[in-house]
Amino acid sequence: MQEEHRPPEPQEPQIDLREYWNILLKRRWTIVAVFVAAVTLVTIYTLRQKKIYEAKASVIIELMAPQVLGNVREVYNLGAGSYWSNKEYYETQYKVITSRAVALRVVQLLKLEGNKSFLGIDKLPPEEQKRALEVAPDYVELVRAAISVEPVKDSRMAYVKARHEDPKWSKRLADATVNAYRDYNLQTRREITLEAAGWLADQAKELKVRMEESENALQQFKEDLKVLSVSMEDRQNITSQRLVDLNQTLNQTQAQRIALEARRKLVLDIRENKQPLEAIEKISENQLIRQLKESYFRLKEQQAELGSKYLPDHPKYKAVEEKVLEVKRNIDREMGNALAAIEGEYQTKLEAERGLQRELTKIKAEALEINKHALDYSRLKRVSDNNEALYKLVLSRQKEATLAAHQETNNVYKLDAAVEPTVPVYPRVNLNLLLAAVVGLLLGVGLAFFLEYLDNTVKSQEDLERQLQVAFLGIVPSIKLESPPEGAEVVRLRDHYLISHPKSNVAEACRTVRTNILFLAPENPPRKLLVTSPSPQEGKSTVCINLGITMAQSGSRVVLVDTDMRRPRLHKTFGLKTGAGVTTAILGEAELEQVVHHTDVPGLDVIPCGPVPPNPTELIHTERFRRFLEALAARYDRVIFDSPPVLAVADPLILASLMDGVVLVIKSAQTSREMARRAVRQLRDIKAKVLGAVINDIDLSHRDYGYYYYHQYRTYYGEKEQDAPGQ
User: Fold this and answer.
1) N or C, which end of the chain has less CB nearby within 10 Å?
2) Can you tell me the distance from the alpha carbon of 181 to that of 391, in angstroms, rounded to the nearest whole number?
3) What is the pLDDT of residue 143?
4) How far out from the chain centre does Cα 719 lie?
5) Longest dimension (CA), the chain
6) Burial of 226 (0-12, 13-18, 19+ CB in 10 A)
7) Cβ–Cβ < 8 Å for 167, 422
8) Do 475 and 586 reside in the same domain of the chain?
9) pLDDT of 313-323, one tens digit each?
10) Where are the beta strands (DSSP E) in 77-122?
11) pTM higher than 0.85
12) What is the total count of domains within the chain?
């Protein structure tokens, strides 16, 4: 017994665009139906919608109106400034255009209240018109709903759009809205300016009173300080200059007094002999004292010379000594006179210094007093000046605002009037159809993939290997009989299709299955094969017969054994009677040679089921059945058993345990994955050798499942399908 062949381990799922394309081809009519339905419904809905016309007028919104009287911008803020402030200003203006205030002006300007043409009821019967007017619609909200604003990028222009069922009314609404907004803006500016002018006039009256009061207080303060002739600032300057001058004079006087005091002290020291006579020149520049000092030094030299020659009592020496004393007395006398002069000058400077200090003290006290009053004066002066400046400013602005209120300048200009539209903007037929086509296509594709997701049947090799974990042995295409003869059995014709069409794609596919089975174990190919399926009506008998025919045509001795003891089929295919068969051979009522029937295919024999037993399962469990299998295996190269479905009865499970291999037949697009998994699981639970699975009844005329290469067989062999059978 060979090892059970298992497919390779499943890999991670990968995106296969061809598989997606095949799904789209398979579900193409679903996609087309959804697509057509979506486009049709949207088309009907679009064509039944009311036509809406749109007219637009252009308007220019400047940040501020022309300033004829100068800059009045501060009176009312027009929003000029930074980028964000300008953006906020324009956004505000767009909201104003669609506001109730402007809409109310439009209603009044066009006299819309009770206007039947505007409401679209002018063509209704009078009774319906009356009932419609009794509802009393909000005309302002109707206008607001019809108006929109579209700013023009990187400009100060905007389009004012109006929509209405009547193109004439759309034009009227657009023009009226621009006019109403322009008038509203002008009136608003005028009202703001007049209000500002009134407020400025009230402020000017208050400021005038405050200015006069501050001026009177300043005047009274100046009268109290007696500074009417000169200002407080001038008086402060004069006092400050006097302080500077006095300080300078006092410093000079003090320096002179200090110098005289030094000379006076020097003279006194000389007179008291505390200083040598040589220091006299530092005291005075007196010429006489200078001459006496020179005479004194000459006589002292003579006295020194005589002293070296004569004694002190010598007459010459004494005469010179007398002269020295006389000059000394004269010097002392002149020094006294100089000292008296210095003393007098010193006393004069001393008295002058004291007077200057007294005057400086007085001036300082006066300066302190002035500074103390200067604070009050400055405060009063500042208040008076501020009140005067404010009064002049407010008075000037009040005059400007009063004049500006009477100007007709505006910062809103109407550029182009609206043009009556000829083509409706709603419904947008082309766009709606395009969207319907796109959405319909997407819905169709989505529905196709959803239906494919709900379809859990086995359809391809990938399903077998990924979902069931079994080897893929091949496919068997759908057998299509073209005008069978009258009275012919369709089942028999289908089972003998390989004999009548040996070069068809069905024959080639069956040969591929045969080759795959034999090559699973080339050294020891399976001898006893069981062909079964998960459920009835999946074509296992047809596959079993075709497999037997192809193996016999390859030169093997093959026998087909009908072990489907509940619904036997092989005897019908080969035109045999239901007499002796498998059941009679097991029960010993017939020998093996008696139940074997030869067919028209060389090397192919058939053993029918025989009489249907009441207990097939117990019959298969007998030892005689095992000996029956051994006898067949000894006589034939291949023994192929046709059994009941796995999920229907227990017979195939008992048979599978005795086989060299099991071939599972799956009907394409009919056998569910769950049923196939259960069948494989039950076979493996009893240790059966599942060789693989065959996908049966695939329609190769449709590329639903991706087996495109079988078209080559069909094309190549199709021209010779009428040839005589042969291999």
Assistant:
1) N
2) 37
3) 92
4) 64
5) 212
6) exposed
7) yes
8) yes
9) 777 777 877 88
10) none
11) no
12) 4
Looking at the fold, whether 394 and 267 belong to one and the same domain comes out as yes
Render the burial of 639-677: b for 16+ CB within 10 Å, e for the rest. bbbbbbbbbebebbbbbbeebbbbbbbbbbbbbebebbb
The secondary structure of 574-632, three-state, reads: CCCCCCCCHHHHHCCCCCHHHHCEECCCCCEEEECCCCCCCCHHHHHCCHHHHHHHHHH
Q: Give φ, ψ of 56 to 5 degrees.
A: -140, 140
Same domain (yes/no): 254, 130 = no
3-class state of residue 14 by DSSP: coil
Which residues does 365 contact at the CB level (< 8 Å), separation at least 6? none
Q: Are residues 694 and 553 in the same domain?
A: yes
By residue count, the chain amounts to: 727
Q: 537 and 611: one domain? A: yes
**Residue 333 in this model has a pLDDT that exceeds 70:** yes
Backbone angles phi, psi at 280, to 5 degrees: -65, -35
Say which residues have a Cβ less than 8 Å from residue 260's Cβ, sequence separation at least 6: 342, 345, 346, 349
Q: How many whole angstroms separate alpha carbon 304 and alpha carbon 319?
A: 13
Task: Tell me the pLDDT tens digit for each residue of 157-204.
Answer: 999 999 999 999 999 999 999 999 999 988 888 888 777 778 888 888
> For residue 715, how many C-alpha atoms fall within 13 Å in the half-sphere facing its CB?
6
In angstroms, the Cα distances linking 73 to 181, 189, 190, 200, 401 are 21, 11, 13, 15, 10
- Mean pLDDT along residues 596-608: 93
Q: Residues 154, 247: one domain?
A: no
First-last CA distance in the chain: 30
pLDDT, tens digit (0-9, with 9 covering 90-100), for 552-597: 999 999 999 999 988 898 888 888 877 789 999 998 888 989 999 9
Residues 63 and 24 in one domain: no
Please indicate, yes or no, if residue 725 is contained in any of the structural domains.
no
Q: Residues 137-161: pLDDT tens digits?
A: 889 999 999 999 999 998 999 999 9
Q: Which domain holds residue 58?
A: 51-185+408-416
